[in-house]
Design brief:
Layout (H helix, E strand, L loop, with lengths): L2 H16 L17 H13 L6 H6 L3 H12 L5 H5 L12 H5 L5 E6 L2 H13 L6 E9 L4 H14 L5 E4 L7 E5 L6 E5 L3 H16 L11 E7 L4 E9 L5 H20 L12 H13 L2 H11 L18 E6 L2 H14 L3 H17 L3 E10 L15 E10 L4 H15 L7 H8 L6 E7 L13 E8 L6 E9 L3 E8 L6 H20 L5 H6 L1
Parallel strand pairs: 5-6, 9-11, 11-13
Antiparallel strand pairs: 1-4, 2-7, 2-12, 3-4, 6-7, 8-14, 9-10, 13-14
């Protein structure tokens, strides 16, 4: 494709996927609102138009002009052919040993080797003996009619759309740990009918507590549960419990939105409009993770990132942390809009600016101005059309190092942006391997930023509406800091979970005060410093 047509086509894609006609050819995709999930759609659409791209191409060439030049260079042979096409390993079918496949029981439609992240999560849960670890629940109140037979039918349809909802694990019968996808799995729905709001609240609480105290049987599908408490009037309480080993947070949100969308379509007699998710995504993720795990270059890169003194005294813990402590700080959505504008001014993604404030605050509470390492949650979804619609576990958490906390917010954000770009080719390298090389945990505090725009699709429902959201999850990190945009039931702000035995409440409160102060200072002037905002 010629440069000018490429510029016009890419600009149209940028504007469509970000949802703004104000984006220009020199604007940074990530600085004006793009994220890793939106990037998947950009890459897929550009490739379909004859401009083969990868996520790394967009990350390293984030403006339309830069990306169009990259397309031109690739088309004229100015780039490494192997780099341009991406390496391809064995086909997905060969991921499972033929003898293993032949030995699988009747009723199994497909199987894949469990990913390193999945086996790591299961191992941590077994070691902790805590049935609530990585057992995630989301609940909400739905206004609209409840027809149990219809809802069951929709739940079966949902399970058909997303095979991971019909999966189990077998960790010992084959040559390696397997995730098995079954054909016939009974929908796990419990319905209770109550007379009052108080009784509905009690039913939800009792069911939640039961799930969190029940150890999951990995070998029996499904690894999720659904509960409905039908209350007075035209309302019902919906609660879904899913283990993190089968899906990440974005996937959980997708499951809930798809479930309500399918049910709403049945109630209204209209089409649901949901595209079929790509069937090969889970196999492709396993293949990519294996290729990354075999990379000695990736191993050396991550060792250099995290081989610095820890923030916490590691001798105090050898088991997964029990992060039952919770703190939340709601921030006005306008603050995030201001931060996004300042990030665009500095030509960095909003995520990089948030990460800069996070690392600076960590350094303050740890009394450190150099070598601050935090775990950063990264998206590893395969680069294929509608990959953001796939339900599964496609994340990794990798250590990222900020060499110095001195400098302006813009400078810190650019440093972290450069670190993320450098890390992008290796981000699927499993965390378990990183920590195996290191001989210890690679970070103490995890960072995540998610714009939950998937939930905005609920505003399009005709017969249903949702409110009264709540959630519950527990990770194995001593402290996790989640920066969220438009999270149902919370809004935009900072959610923190922590183990009070490893991180004191005073440290958490100090971190929140520093982080919120830093965010406000960066929103006012991205060229100011953390020291100025703290002293001010």
């Amino acid at each position: 494709m010629e440069p000018e047509p490429a510029i016009h086509a890419l600009l149209a894609i940028f504007r469509k996927e970000i949802g703004s006609d104000q984006i220009g050819p020199d604007d940074d995709f990530y600085a004006v609102g793009g994220d890793s999930l939106t990037a998947l759609r950009v890459v897929a659409r550009a490739t379909a138009l004859g401009m083969p791209l990868r996520l790394i191409d967009l990350l390293m060439n984030p403006s339309v002009h830069e990306l169009a030049e990259h397309v031109r260079s690739a088309a004229t042979g100015d780039t490494d052919p192997e780099e341009a096409s991406g390496s391809r390993a064995q086909p997905a079918d060969s991921l499972v040993d033929p003898e293993d496949r032949a030995a699988m029981p009747a009723g199994v439609l497909d199987a894949l080797p469990a990913s390193a992240l999945q086996t790591g999560l299961i191992f941590q849960c077994e070691m902790s003996e805590d049935p609530g670890l990585y057992h995630d629940l989301i609940g909400l109140r739905v206004t609209g009619p409840y027809d149990e037979d219809l809802f069951r039918s929709v739940l079966r349809e949902l399970m058909h759309r997303h095979p991971t909802l019909r999966s189990s694990f077998d960790l010992g019968s084959y040559s390696e740990s397997m995730q098995l996808f079954w054909g016939d799995v009974v929908e796990p729905l419990e319905t209770e009918r109550v007379g009052t709001v108080a009784e509905a609240d009690a039913a939800v609480s009792a069911w939640r507590d039961k799930q969190l105290s029940t150890t999951l049987d990995w070998e029996h599908a499904p690894l999720f549960r659904c509960h409905v408490a039908v209350g007075p009037g035209d309302t019902f309480r919906l609660t879904v419990a899913i283990h993190h080993a089968i899906m990440d947070g974005w996937s959980f949100a997708t499951v809930l939105v798809d479930l309500l969308t399918l049910y709403d379509a049945r109630l209204t007699g209209t089409g649901h409009g949901l595209p079929d998710p790509p069937a090969a995504a889970a196999a492709e993720f396993v293949r990519l993770e294996r290729a990354a795990g075999n990379s000695t270059e990736a191993a050396e890169f991550w060792r250099a990132q995290c081989d610095v003194p820890p923030l916490l005294d590691r001798e105090r813990y050898g088991r997964p942390a029990d992060a039952f402590g919770r703190r939340a700080s709601v921030l006005p959505p306008g603050l995030f809009a201001e931060l996004r504008a300042r990030a665009a001014e500095a030509r960095v993604p909003l995520k990089s600016l948030l990460l800069a404030v996070h690392c600076w605050a960590l350094g303050r509470i740890a009394g450190r101005t150099t070598d601050v390492v935090t775990g950063v949650v990264v998206n590893g979804r395969p680069e294929m059309p509608d990959a953001d619609r796939v339900v599964g576990l496609f994340l990794n958490t990798v250590p990222l190092r900020l060499p110095s906390t001195s400098g302006t917010w813009a400078e810190l954000a650019r440093t972290l942006r450069e670190a993320e770009v450098a890390a992008a080719p290796y981000q699927r390298h499993p965390l378990a391997l990183i920590e195996e090389y290191l001989g210890r945990r690679s970070f103490d505090v995890a960072f995540n930023f998610t714009d939950f725009h998937v939930y905005r699709r609920l505003s399009e429902l005709g017969a249903l509406s949702a409110d009264g959201w709540w959630d519950r999850d527990k990770a194995s990190h001593p402290m996790s800091c989640d920066f969220t945009l438009d999270y149902p039931g919370f809004g935009s702000g900072l959610l923190i979970s922590f183990d009070p035995h490893l991180v004191t409440e005073e440290q958490v409160e100090e971190y929140i005060a520093l982080a919120v102060g830093g965010l406000r200072a960066a929103a006012r002037d991205v060229h100011s410093t953390g020291t100025e905002s703290h002293d001010g």
